[in-house]
Amino acid sequence: MTQDLERILMKNDLSDEEIVTLLGLTDPEDCRKLQERAYALTTERMGPNVYLRGLIEVSNICTANCRYCGIRKSNQTVTRYTLDEDVIVGCALHAAEKGYGSIAVQAGERRDEKWIAFIERVLRRIHAETTSDALPNGLGVTLSLGEQTLEVYERWAEACGNPGGLRYLLRIESSNPTLFHALHSTPGRFEKILEHRYEALRNLRRAGYQVGTGVMIGLPGQTLEDLKNDIRTFQMLDADMIGMGPYITSLGADMTSEGMMQKTPLLQLAFNMIATTRLVMKDVNIATATALDTLDPNGRVGGILHGCNVVMPNITPQATRKSYQLYDNKAGTEVGAESNILMERKIVEMTGRTLGLNRLGSSLHWVRRAGVAPN
């Protein structure tokens, strides 16, 4: 494999068969070569910085019933909450003071006007109150608030007030229609349909966002061919950023009986997927997922070593973090915001990277398409 692998790793464009080969690597030496190539390409195309996105988990109230998720509507054991407007803005101010450059606003999925207007109002305040000499356009904002209409995306984009740091993460979870349906097959007011997901991603592009998507890795019934097709879907969508991680079961979900992969092979598969996505997509932002740390204490370090260039320290008030468990044993729920930024600094230093403080860290893929200066 070694000579063939070295040839594959140096190619600019990979075939479907070659992508499947890289995803399926298990030999430690082969995996090391893949990791080193992905890290080198990240340095070459993206530079040495790892960018911060301070994660604010605004609410765990959700109208959806996705079978894999711990905050699904039907989970009666979770304590529901929505953070106060002042608390959310306070988290954003903390991020700005610590040099994060950007935040990520995440919540369960809702589409009622009261919620839409609440988010709009919060975003206006965040922009107004974080504009400074260090951040002349305020914090960059990544929203992860599910499928909405084009009009809602446009309202939130205008409220963010920072078109150079405007991002939205809407994961597809799987591009395999059968798998997607199995993950979202519970009937409800907002039952998920894969084509609707794609239309929402197209609407995000129309509304001016840097568009992010991603999948779960190691799903029951998922194949290497499925993961290869996921990467091809990222290309088809012309994604600017990717957020993906290993599938981990949740006791509050509806899939525990289907089990999950053993931790060691699952972690390697996740690393292979990250590295291969970097080789194919080249200049997109890729976040190192907290779920990697749930599999291994140095999981996010491994993510950066395999091609990730974004970290997302949790700056949500500690009192509510245990109520935002999308999967079991989520890492980072026991430490406060101050400890998290120190942890991220340590993680980045361990990988030979530097923190891109007071930088929006926008996707270079988007920067080149938009014809603007890197920020």
Automatic annotation (TrEMBL):
Keywords recorded for this protein, A-Z: 4Fe-4S, Iron, Iron-sulfur, Metal-binding, S-adenosyl-L-methionine
SMART domains per record: Elp3
Metal-binding is among the record's keywords: yes
Superkingdom of source: Bacteria
Cofactor: [4Fe-4S] cluster
Protein residues bound to [4Fe-4S] cluster: C62, C66, C69
GO molecular function: 4 iron, 4 sulfur cluster binding; metal ion binding; transferase activity
Cofactor stoichiometry and binding remark: Binds 1 [4Fe-4S] cluster. The cluster is coordinated with 3 cysteines and an exchangeable S-adenosyl-L-methionine.
Domain Radical SAM core: 48-287
InterPro entries with a match to the protein in the record: Aldolase_TIM, Elp3/MiaA/NifB-like_rSAM, FeFe-hyd_HydE_rSAM, HydE/PylB-like, rSAM, rSAM_sf
Protein name: Iron-only hydrogenase maturation rSAM protein HydE
